Every structure is written in structure tokens, then in C-alpha cells.
Amino acid sequence: MTKAKRRLPRKPIISIVRQNGRLNVQGINKWYYYWRDPYHLLITMPWSWFLGIVASGYILLNSLFALAYLLQPGSIANARPGNFWDAFFFSIQTMATIGYGVMNPQTDYANVLVAIESWVGLLGVAMGTGIAFARFSRPTARVVFSRVAVVTAYDEIPTLMFRVANKRRNQIIEAQIRVVLVRDEMNAEGQFMRRLYDLPLVRANNPIFILSWTVMHPIDEYSPFYGATLADLEAAETMLVVTLTGIDETVSQMIHARHTYIASEMLWHHRFADILFQKSDGQRYIDYNHFHEVMP
Amino acid sequence: MTKAKRRLPRKPIISIVRQNGRLNVQGINKWYYYWRDPYHLLITMPWSWFLGIVASGYILLNSLFALAYLLQPGSIANARPGNFWDAFFFSIQTMATIGYGVMNPQTDYANVLVAIESWVGLLGVAMGTGIAFARFSRPTARVVFSRVAVVTAYDEIPTLMFRVANKRRNQIIEAQIRVVLVRDEMNAEGQFMRRLYDLPLVRANNPIFILSWTVMHPIDEYSPFYGATLADLEAAETMLVVTLTGIDETVSQMIHARHTYIASEMLWHHRFADILFQKSDGQRYIDYNHFHEVMP
Amino acid sequence: MTKAKRRLPRKPIISIVRQNGRLNVQGINKWYYYWRDPYHLLITMPWSWFLGIVASGYILLNSLFALAYLLQPGSIANARPGNFWDAFFFSIQTMATIGYGVMNPQTDYANVLVAIESWVGLLGVAMGTGIAFARFSRPTARVVFSRVAVVTAYDEIPTLMFRVANKRRNQIIEAQIRVVLVRDEMNAEGQFMRRLYDLPLVRANNPIFILSWTVMHPIDEYSPFYGATLADLEAAETMLVVTLTGIDETVSQMIHARHTYIASEMLWHHRFADILFQKSDGQRYIDYNHFHEVMP
Amino acid sequence: MTKAKRRLPRKPIISIVRQNGRLNVQGINKWYYYWRDPYHLLITMPWSWFLGIVASGYILLNSLFALAYLLQPGSIANARPGNFWDAFFFSIQTMATIGYGVMNPQTDYANVLVAIESWVGLLGVAMGTGIAFARFSRPTARVVFSRVAVVTAYDEIPTLMFRVANKRRNQIIEAQIRVVLVRDEMNAEGQFMRRLYDLPLVRANNPIFILSWTVMHPIDEYSPFYGATLADLEAAETMLVVTLTGIDETVSQMIHARHTYIASEMLWHHRFADILFQKSDGQRYIDYNHFHEVMP
Known about the structure:
The structure is a homotetramer. Chain A is of the alpha+beta class. Chain A has helices at residues 38-44, 47-70, 84-95, 108-136, 230-235, and strands at 13-19, 22-25, 76-77, 104-105, 143-145, 149-154, 157-166, 172-186, 192-198, 205-206, 212-218, 239-248, 254-262, 266-268, 271-272, 276-278, 284-287, 294-295.
């Protein structure tokens, strides 16, 4: 328990903005906020920026070494004395460990610089290429959530449903869905708070999530939706937060996806169009073109 | 929540084909479907393809640089002017950071190309070798499931059983098995759906899964199998989906295996042959030759 | 089960020191205790030490090879015979795989040394840069716990509360908090023991932990705090151990944080200042300047 | 579900040997059984073997390329024609990407070989160094289990206890212990089986496992030990399998440890010696010298 742990977040005031009926935290999750977590910064920035930064760093570092070689005229054989570019290209040949040898260190001073540069180069290359690979291999989920959730009768119980589809052609092992209802509440002491409630699901896990999964929450007397009207839900800024986690079959790593439904995206007395059909020869097929379709 | 998340899967119609009594999703899990996930693609393709792609990329990249060196005649010392192969071999010596130095950059143009090539080479080599190592070290389970499941009396309760064996000579830590019954159902509203039911097991986890494990589901009045006939099971396209997950003792990484049993692979009133025997000197041994054997 | 597993810890007597009312284990978690776990040692030491060790190792290894090259006079072309620095710089050029070629191995003895050095260099560089990258990419949580916990009425039930804020601008997926009360107890046999009790929480997980989370434990008749006085708590050296675990959204790796509250850091009949405000235009904002503030 | 998954383990008969009262599976967990899992093999073999294999592979590969260079006399400049060692050393300089340049490829044939060798070298080096680093950074637990388990009264209930200590100077996050009793049983149908029972523990998880943890299982009427005698336990080959899992605080990776207690290692009516003491100044300390000590 160091003092550091008690320090406040960097930007102590954060706005929560309403956009299209959604509450959004301003500036959250933008990669350029990570400046104090360089690894996160380098992982989340766009590829173009990342490659630009790596290239700039490479040029900058070689320029610094070039200037250092120039400090002692004649330190590099076959380099034009005082010529920055020759020193720069010699530095590149050294840091990248090419070492053609036409230009080569003539003096002890140059040799010491080469020793330092080789060491800096090895660590720097490891960092740059390590981050590049971490970016490339970062586990991600590619799932699609239906545009809306619907409430319709299922086995005579009004049931909240939404659909999830796996866009990859592999399985998500041990897929688990958690649905949390978030709404404004006032407690007995008159304090305002945003409260969270877990919604019980008919199935919260799916061992065979390859194609499509209809997630269902029965609205019985234990559900926080029981007896609620659309006006209630909107007044309390109600939203559903859906979290999907699982293990990617191919890379055996944890993946996750998240989606929110706000009150106006839950359609009462609607149901989803079928996506599972049967051909005349009895063969089944799934037509994702109807994935987002709902009907009264 | 970006728009991208709402886009449909790439190929919106997917066939589910019946093969030997099994429902299979056509084309699922074929490596060449991953073209929009290049990392997954490169991880799952066969080694021969992977090595071929790496080699082709290496040749292509070096050819491009060779052509660039040729644009300025005389840019490379000791290379025959206008000779593609000399430029190509010089490019190889540069990208692989060998740098014999007999051929070497003569002009600023060539030196700038060398700087760019070294940078491209370092990133490219990191990607290629990183993926090669990720392929080689990918955690996999090597377990074998018995060819059929049987239903036999155990402690006077009819019990569904199947066997799993670990083919590796190490332990699977925290091995967990989940068995889900999948069958067609029609709800009260007349909608057809594929429903999943968890089957309760006598033991769902095994801290010492080294050799063989007999997984048992008692068919009591809470079991979805209770009172079902083989005809019922087949009509409803019933299948058991078995998922095994655990931690590989050696590499401390998550591993998983999956198996399905269809109705015709569940043998009623059969039992497994013993695989644990005792020698005359009291020493025990396991004979896997009887692993798949059943008897009435 | 080898004998090794039964060996005692290295330093069999460990002091537990009282500092500012906290019990601290002396010397725990200091990086220089890891000398028998070299990987842990290299991961946890300060960067300055790590870079120093890598540099020293690099210099030492090259010096050893330099001495070996010197054993045979004339083994390196263009090196002054018997000159340590020339041999040293040749070794650097070899280990870093630069190979300018002006100095080069003349004899079979030197060539064998080069073969060995290249092999040692490749493994050594992989170790050094691998650890450097592991240090850089180590997943860490950046969360801040409120300076004190308070006990105040919530929905008319006395409730223990503390706050946690995520200092990063990303989400912690599947954030989970566990609060354990630790206190001295004597059992019926008169034996003294430090016992642990889980405190039930209103919510122990939070799927949307971006900003701030108020963790609440209701002090009802099942709570170990029920009826306890401050004097009781202090006499029993009571402390709360809070553990937060979750998955970092950005790097998909497990992160964790820990905090302890001792008896004097739990304020009875106080409550936290609000941090969620509303502007005149209805827009909400969070002001972390009041994060640690309590009021009676 | 491919055919491969149904194939039997490689060595279908495995002996279970009694050693000092323990049942041991012969040959399990020996690294040389992994020949069909090369990654596991290379991870688990002793360092001396690993380094030997890497060195041999390096020499073999370079010898093959040396022979290929020799096929065309004069392919390498400044190499004695037909001299294996010159070709070998040239190959080393090429594969390790040193490239002094004194020896260099003279012909297109040699240049093509160099291109192939650079590509083989880059992949090979990545494999070798990747495995070396994976070996070095493999997460391991360093915990010690007490030599015996004891059964003594705790709060007037007979309780099975054993101790665990963390030998590292860091914490194990979310440490969890699972204790399973394994014994021979015969079912109602007369079939012999080895059955597993989870033992309920007073605490199965420990958020602050830094030093020592006494794990306790109360032997009440729900315990499989209830009313059992030592003779019963031994006749049924009873053993306790203890599994500890957790997250290493330093490297944020899963670690695990396992221990078994056989019937003769459970001491009835004994208790552990204290290890927590208090100095005259009230300061506490832990003396691990008494860690394994029991007293009647």
C-alpha cells in the first residue's frame, strides 16, 4: 500500500455526455489518453501511428549516434569526414547489425560507440518488434449483437431476448454471457445512485457457440423489469449491459465483447424473424440476412 | 458500440449438413475462411502452406527491393549493372542483416533503401518468426473419448457413461467436463428451437486426470433422458456435446477438447469393459486396448 | 512428490512488524529476495538495475571471449597482436552479429570460437530482450482505493462502504472484488489463530468498471461486524483485505490490485462526499477531487 | 471429430506401482515420453539436454549447408577449395548473420544457398531462442506442504489439517485449495472403481497467501472420514490429493502445486507445533523450523 495508490486519476473531472439517448463517458478509451501507460498506448494506437512512431524513433536514434560518430573526425573509415549522411548510414548498418564493413570503426572511440549502439539496437529492436507482434496477435472477439432486444412470450412467459452471432468460423469455448441492468435509483436516505442488477438467463453459457445464440431473460416476478413501463425505464436511464467472454478455440486465449441496449432499443411485443430454415430436401440452413429483423 | 459490430457475418447463408447422422456446419473451421483475421489464418493453416507463404513473401519482398536498387545503375558496388540477381542477392544479404560487404551501397539512394529495408526486414522477421513460434507452442489437448457412450446401472441407478483418456504423459490440472444435451423443441407458441440442457454429473471435475476418467450422468427423474426412447432421441436430433477444459501441467496454459455423441452412439443396456487389471503379485495395470470395448 | 517440495523456506524466521498500526511482513516482496528465482528477480528489479545487469553481462561475456581470442596470437586479422581492446571489439562485432569483416577470424581456433560465440550470443540476446519485453508488457492494474472505509446507513441498514476508481481510460472486464476480514481468534482448545471471513457484498462483480465503484457490505446479523465496537476490532488486530481482479480490456490479460483497511481506517457514522454531479444543462460529470472526502 | 481423436494412447498398457505405500503410475511425467509433442519435450527436458540438442542441431544444420557449398568448387571466395571447415565456418557466419565478408558467395548457386540458409536460420533461431525463453519464464509455484496431515479437535470438532507455506517472497493471488479423497469402492453391481470425493474445507481460498496457511477439513457426519478407521483407509488405498492453484503476483500467470497424503501420513490425535510466536516486545514472528513438527 504505497502513497501512489491513493493518488487521484490524472484528469479529475470527467463528463458523461448523452449521445443518441446513450450516456457516454467523454474521451474514455481513446488511445492517446494512455501516455502514462506506454505499453497500452503503443498497443491501442492505429497501425499508421505505430509504424510512424517506430520509424521516427529509428531515424532519431540513428541520427543521435551519427552525431556522436561525427564528434571525432576520422572515426569511421571510408566515410567522408564531417558528412552527416555517411555517419548516419554507418549507424544504420551498425544498429541493424548488417555491417557491410566498407565503412568500419577506425578508433577506440568509434568502437566503444559501436558496442553501445549494438546493445541499444538489440533492446530497441526487441521492444519494437515485440509490440508489433503483440498488436498483431491480440485476441479479439468478432461477434455481432442484434440491433435491438425484443420482449415476446416464450412458453407463455414474457421474455426479453436478443441475438448474438459469432462472425469467425471457429468456436468460442466456454462462451458466457452476463446481462446487467443499470438504472438510477434513490435510496431510503435520499441519495441518488446508479444501481446494477444481474438478469437471470435461461442459459448463461454455451459450449457450442459457433453460429447464433438467442439469449433469453424471463420477465417473471423476480425480474427488475416486472411491471415496468417504457416511461419508467427511460426516466431511470435504464440500460442493459451485455458482456460476452470466452476462450477463442484457435489461439486458446480469453476474448470478450460488450454491448449496451438502452430503453428505446428494447421492443415490447415484438419477436425476431427466423434465421434457421429447412430446404425441401430436409437440409437446414441459417440465413443471417434476417438476423436483425423483428416483427410484431 | 460502433456500427461495425452490427454488420452481418461475411457469408450470410450457412448450410447445416447431415453426415453419418451428424449435423455439421458446412465449411466451419476451415482455415481458408479466416482471410479477414490474418493472425488466425496464419495460425491455423497447415505448416506446409505457412512455410510456403513465408518463403514466397520473403522472395517477393526481396524482389521488390532488388527492382528498387536497379532503378539507379551503379548504386551497388561490385554488382553487375542492371543484373536483377545481383541486386536480389544484395537485398537478401541486407534484409537478413548478413552484410558480407563485397556488394555494398555506393550512393545515398542505395543507402536510404538499405535503411528502409533494414527496418522492413526487422519487423517482417519478427512477424514471421513470432507466428512460427506461436504455431509451435500453441497449447493443445490430446485426449481420447470412448467411441460410444453407454447406459448401464450404477448403484442401481441407470447411468449414462463415457470414458476419456489423456494421451499425454502429464496431468491436466483442474480438468473440468461439461456435458450438454442439445435437442429440437417446440415452445408453447409453436416456435421451433434447438435447446440446450446441462447434464448433472457425478463428478464434473477431476484434480488427478492423468490416465482415464469415466464420466457418469445418473438418469434419475431430473434427467432430460428420463423416460426417453431411442426413437424420441433420434427424432429430436438429440446429441451430447462434451467439453473438457483444463490447465496443461507442463506449459500452464488453458487446453480444451470437444466431442459429440449422437443418439445412435449411446448404447442402452451396455457397459464398458474393464481396463484396470491386477497382476498375480497384486500390482495394478491399465490396458487401454479395451478402452473402446463395450459388452451387453 | 519430490523431497525438494518438503524443504523449508530459505529464511526460516520471518518477523511481522507493526508499522503505523499495520502488521507488515518484513522484507516480503523486495526484489532482491528472489535470487533463487532468477526470472522473478529480473522481472521485479528496478529498470536501472536491470539495464545495468544486462550491460554488465554483455561486457563480461565479450571480455571472456576477447581473452579467449588473445590466447592464440594472430587469430584475428587486422587486430593488433595481444591487444585486448581489439579482441574485445572484434568479439562485440561477432556477438552482435555485425561482422564488419575488417577484423575477421584467421585460424580454425578463432573460427570455432566464432561459432560458439554466435550460439551464445543468440541465446543470450533472446534471454535479455525477452525479459526486457516481459517487463515492459507486464499487465498491471491502476486502480485507486479510497483512503478510508465508512459505515453509514444505506436503505436503513448500516453498511460498510469504500470506493475504487480505475485510473486507466479503459474498462476492466469482469471486475471482481473480494473482501476478507482477518482477525485474531482463540478456539475452544485455547489455540490462537488468525481467522479469515468473507464479507458478503451487495455486488461483488461489475461488468462496467470504467470510472468509480462503491463497494458495499451490509452489516446485518450475519456480518462479523455485527455488534462489534472499535475497541474489539483493534484488540483483535482486525483488518479488511480487499482484492480486485479482472481482465484488462486492452491487453486481454489478468490484472489485480490489493488494499487493506485497518480498524482505525474504518470511520463509523461517516459517509462519502458525492462525486457525481449534474450541470445546469442536465449533463452529468464526475469530480474525482472529492473521491477521498468523507463527512459525518 | 476426426478419427485421430479415437486412437488409443501410444503405450496401451501402463503399470501402477506401489512405492513406499504410494500408488505411482510408472513412467508418467518423464520428459522423454513426449516425443510426439516436441514442444512439451523441449520444455520439460533438463537444461543440459536442451542446450545439447540446440548445439547439435546448430552444428548439424551448418554441416549440411557446408556440404551443399562444397558441391560447387569455388562457390565461396577465399575458402580453400574442397575444405569442409572453411565451408562450415562460412555457413556459421551466414546462418548467424555475421557475414564478415572475407569469405563470400561467388556464384549464383552459392547466393541461392545463402538465401535459403538465411531463411532457415531466421526461423531456426526464433524456434530455439523462443523455447529457451519459454523454459526460463515458465510459471511455477514454490510451495511446501507439511510432511503429514493431522487430525485434532478444533472448536470441539475433529478436524483434518495440513499446512502449506509459500517459499517465494511474493503473494499468490486468489490462492485456492481443493482436497479430494480417492479410495477404492465396489458399487451395488459388484464393479470395482476408484472414486473421488471433494472434502469441504473451512476455507478453500485465501486472498493473502504470503506465508503459511493451515487448511482444515472438519470431520463431521458429512465427511467421508466419519467413523473410518486407519485399517479401513489403508484397505481402500485411501489417499488425499491436494491441488493448489493461484495467480503469481509478480508475473500474473497461473501457477499450481499438488501433493498427496496416503493413509499412513495422516496422524490421528496429533496436532501441529506452533510456528507463530511473540517476542517480549510484543512483535510477532514466524519460525518455519517447526513447520513439519507434530505433537500428540
